[in-house]
Amino acid sequence: MLKTVHLAVYDTFSDWEAGHATAHINRALWHREPGTWQVKTVAISAEPITSMGGMRVLPDLALEDLKPADSAMLILPGLDTEHHPEALAAFARKAREFLAAGVPVAAICGATFGLAQEGLLDDRRHTSNAAEYLGYTGYSGGEHFVEAPAATDGDLITATGTRPVDFAREIFARLDIYEPHVLDAWYRLYGNNDPAGFYALLEYEQQRAAATR
Q1: pTM surpassing 0.85?
Q2: What is the phi/psi pair of residue 92, to 5°?
Q3: Which of 53, 109, 114, 145 has its CA 20 to 30 A from that of 135?
Q4: Angle formed by the axes of helices 180-190 and 195-211, to 10°?
Q5: Which one of the listed residues 42, 63, 95, 109 is annotated catalytic?
Q6: Strand, helix or coil for residue 68
Q7: What percent of the chain has pLDDT over 90?
Q8: What are the Cα distances from residue 204, in Å, to 56, 63, 150, 185, 189?
Q9: Residue 103: left if φ>0, alpha if ψ -120 to 50, beta else—which one?
Q10: Who's near 85: CB < 8 A, 6+ residues apart?
Q11: Cα–Cα distance between 113 and 136 in angstroms, integer?
Q12: Is 165 a catalytic residue?
C-alpha cells in the first residue's frame, strides 16, 4: 500500500530544510520496501505558494482536507514567522490533530516556534534553533529542551534549522524507510561527507539487484 508523507508549504517556507527528507522519501533507491512512499504538499488553500528560495509550488491539497488517517507523517519546514503567523498557527493546530491521532509530526526551525505557541512542546523532549528562541513564545516546556541537532520524542521530531540532514535522519528512522545499516550509511555520506557511506549504499543496491535476478 502506498504511504503518503505530507509536506506543509506556505509563503517563505524554507525549501532546503526539508529537502533531504522529501527527496529521499520520494526516491525509492535504498528503501526497505521500494515503491511504498510518496510526498504530497499541503497548504492553507489551493493557491500557489512561493518558497523562500523563490520556487513556486502548486499544493496538492488544502489544509482543511488533510486528515491524519490519510497520512504517514506531517513535515513542517521553517518560514518567515514574523510575517506569516497565520500559517504558523494553522499548521500547529493541524499538528495537534495529528499527534492526538498517533500520526508523527516533524518540525524544523521556525515551525518549532509554532508548536511551542500551541503548547505541543510543554511536555515533550524537543530542540530548536536555541532555547532562548523558543522562550519568546512564553511556552512552559523549557525544561524539556535539549541541545541537539534533532530530537525525537514518540511521534514528535524537532530540529534546528541548520541541520536538515539530521532532521531527515530522524524522519527516516521514525518511518522505518531504510534498514538500520542503510540509514547509517546514508548519514555517513550526507551527514559526514564520508565516501565510505556511498560505497556501502552502492554495495547494498548491488546485492539487492543480484538477489532479484
Answers
A1: yes
A2: -65, -40
A3: 53
A4: 140
A5: 109
A6: helix
A7: 94
A8: 36, 38, 27, 10, 14
A9: beta
A10: none
A11: 9
A12: no
